[in-house]
Amino acid sequence: MRLALGLARRPQVPPYPNPWVGCVIVRGGRIVGRGWHRGPGTLHAEAMALEEAGALARGATVYVTLEPCCHHGRTPPCTDALIRAGVTRVVYAVRDPNPVVSGRGARILRRRGIEVVHGVCAREARALNEAYLKFRATGMPLVSIKVAASLDGKTATRAGYSKWITDAEARRRGRRLRARHQAVFVGITTVLTDDPHLGPRSRAAKEPWRVVLDSRLRTTVSSRVVRSGRCIIACTAAAGPSRQRRLEDSGARVWRFPGKRVPLRGLLRRLAAEGIISVLVEGGSEVLGSFMDAGLADRAYWFLSPKILGSQKAQSAIGGRGVGRPSSAASVVDMRIEKAGSGFLLSGRISRTLTH
Question: From the candidates 46, 274, 282, 286, which is the catalytic residue?
Answer without folding.
Answer: 46
